[in-house]
Amino acid sequence: MKAVQIGRFGGPEVLEIVDLPDPHPGVGEIRIRVRAAGINASDWKKRQGTMDQELPQTMGYEAAGVVDEIGDDVTGVALGDRVFGVCPSGAAQAELAVLSSWAPVPEALDYARCAAIPAAAETAARALDQLGVTAGSTLLVNGASGSVGSAAVQLAVERGARVIGTGSPGTHDALRALGAEPVAYGEGMTARVRALAPTGVDLALDVAGSEVLPELVDLAGGTDHVITVADVEGARRTGVRFSRGDSGRATYALALVAALAEAGRFSITVGQTFPLAEVARAHRVGESGTVRGKLVLLVG
Q1: At 256, is the pLDDT very low, low, confident or very high (cuts 50, 70, 90)?
Q2: Which of 6, 10, 182, 215 is the most exposed place for a label (fewest CB within 10 A)?
Q3: Distance, CA of 166 to CA of 116 (rounded, Å)
Q4: pLDDT score, position 14
Q5: First-to-last CA distance in the chain?
Q6: What is the CATH number of domain 2-116+269-298?
Q7: Measured torsion, CA atoms of residues 114, 182, 289, 41, in degrees rounded to the nearest 10
Q8: What is the spatial distance between Cα 94 and Cα 91, in angstroms, rounded to a whole number?
Q9: In this prediction, what percent of the chain has a pLDDT beyond 70?
Q10: Domains 2-116+269-298 and 120-242 equal at CATH topology level
Q11: Topology of domain 120-242, CATH
Q12: Helix or strand or coil: residue 174?
């Protein structure tokens, strides 16, 4: 099969399309013929060598496609089913991918939008669970207009929480449409949040990594009420928890989001799509930060 791989660390030019042996599902896994694969910031971190030092490395943790092989002890899915899900081996950007968690592709969504969902939905749901967001909570989401942020807004609203979301002024109409009360980030953010919530917020989630953790701690009344998924160094400095999936992942979010999307209560924005062969260009676009919405590779 054709797959994205790096044999050395560096810029986008180190990304190659290579021929690799076809993977096969193990117990509790399925294999899909990939139609679309999501791109995340973790991809260029892997490419740069800041995540681990193993070489060669394949790329991609989320994909959507058609089931073509089923492992042992798998029920509820059949050959030919359209699904999207998580590829734990980090080899989703390929013609074939093995998934450990998956959900049916909703009629309301295409493959590209489904491939954009898994990482954002799982990360958002995990962080909301760790924060304890419930009905009646007032949640501040820093970076609410991105893929993870918009997923967090929608899932928190679905739980019955009040959500205040930071974003640039150009995103405010979109944030309102998702159910958030928008505020501009940057200097004066704390005052703008307090104008909406004079006594502060119950909980805060940072998905932007924009060095605002001290402000979030102040607004939420302590480090125990704040989680970041984007600022490792800031978490160390402030004592805020950095959310990882080491203690378990919120894979239930895939089926939940699929159902919400089918009901018209969840949306995700695909900013741009690229053929698999143009993965290097996709990385350049992603790192430039010039495109709003998820980047997706189209396969086949």
Answers
A1: very high
A2: 10
A3: 21
A4: 97
A5: 11
A6: 3.90.180.10
A7: -50
A8: 7
A9: 99
A10: yes
A11: Quinone Oxidoreductase; Chain A, domain 1 (3.90.180)
A12: helix
Token pair, residue 220, equals 């939420």
User: Where does residue 48 rank: exposed (0-12), middle (13-18), buried (19+ CB within 10 A)?
Assistant: middle
* Dist CA 284 CA 44 (whole Å): 9
| Neighbour count for residue 19 (Cβ, 10 Å) | 9
Which residue's entry shows tokens 């009901």? Answer: 263
Query: Which tokens belong to 172?
Result: 């405010």
Give me the pLDDT at residue 292, please.
83
**Contact yes or no for 70/92 (Cβ under 8 A):** no
Per domain, the residue ranges of the chain are: 2-116+269-298, 120-242
Residues paired with 98 in a beta bridge = 31
Taking alpha carbons only, the member of 176, 211, 210 closest to residue 196 is 176
Burial of residue 41 (CB within 10 Å: 0-12, 13-18, 19+) is middle
What does residue 75 show for φ and ψ, rounded to 5 degrees? Answer: -130, 165
SS3 category, 105: coil
CA distance 81 to 71: 14
Q: Which two tokens stand for residue 193?
A: 């949040």
Q: Are 36 and 93 in contact (CB under 8 A)?
A: no
The region that residue 157 occupies, defined by phi over 0 for left and psi between -120 and 50 for alpha, beta otherwise, is alpha
Tokens of 110: 């295409």
Greatest CA separation found in the chain? 59
What distance lies between CA 168 and its chain's CA centroid?
20
Contacts of residue 135, Cβ cutoff 8 Å, sequence gap at least 6:
159, 160, 161
**Angle CA(41)–CA(47)–CA(45) in degrees, nearest 5?**
35
210-214 mean pLDDT:
91
Residue 276 DSSP one-character state = G
Residue with tokens 């590209």: 112
